[in-house]
Amino acid sequence: MVDRVQTPEGETDHIGGAPFNVAVYAARQGADVRFFGNVGGDSAGAFIKEQAKNFGPDLRLTETADCPTTIALVTVDNTGERFFRFLRDNAADYQLDADKIDWSGVTTFHFGTLMLNTEQGRAFCKSAIKQATHRNIRVSTDANFRDDLFATAEERDTTMLPFLMEADVLKLSIEELQALAGESDTALAVSKLGYKGLLFITKGAQGSEAFLGGKRMACVPSEPVEKIVDTTGAGDAFFGAALALLDRGASLDAESLEQVLTTANRSGAAATQTEGAL
User: Fold this and answer.
1) Domains of the chain: which residue ranges?
2) What's the whole-model pTM score?
3) Could you give the CA distance from residue 204 to residue 209 in angstroms, rounded to a whole number?
4) Can you tell me whether residue 259 is helix, strand or coil?
5) Which pLDDT tens digit goes with each residue over 198-251?
6) What is the pLDDT of residues 34-78, one digit of tens each?
């Protein structure tokens, strides 16, 4: 999708969308990445196809001519925190066919969650996760809660949670964990969530934590930054780096996961130093 960043100085368009951001940051960490996505036959779609050539992933973009490309209106406040509103009625980003995925050589399948508020998006994810699991491919996702995609928090949680629990590797912000579990204490929230895979919790200025099967394995403080410009994409930078290290064979013991968190924190911090996600 296009991230249309709105500041007091005006609007700037950037290529974006959490799955694409994760793919780019994983590639920057040396991973061999293939990106499967869909755009509309409009000026925003043409912008994405042109801009995407400047980044690392092997692009497998399709196009739905009669659907608009999704645009995320991103407002950034004076602390660098961002707020989203999506223009995506019958949009192209979730018009995807899992049977068109090229699975050759794939070791990790990462899917985005914004599409889960649509029937088409849920059908794609169900099929793709089933195909990946059948091939013994690691599945990962990031909750990426966005307030205007569901009518209520209850609808959001009920819809998204089954897909999150299917993943072998899951990233949640501390706020997302607390919302899903209804618990403010991190360890208690993880226990209440009942997730059995590898869980990364990002906590902003408080760093990040890794849990495996509900057990805390590592906790690493944040990478200091002098001034935050824009936090858009920081979580994607974190997760892309983490997935690249896992794909290179990082083990799941405490020492290795501490190193994964350290590198991922560094990647996330660096992403806050520029406008836009990439």
Assistant:
1) 2-271
2) 0.89
3) 11
4) helix
5) 999 999 889 999 999 999 999 999 877 777 766 667 889 999 999 999 999 999
6) 999 999 999 999 999 998 888 878 889 888 989 999 998 888 666
| Length of the chain in terms of residues written | 278
User: 2-271 in CATH: which number?
Assistant: 3.40.1190.20
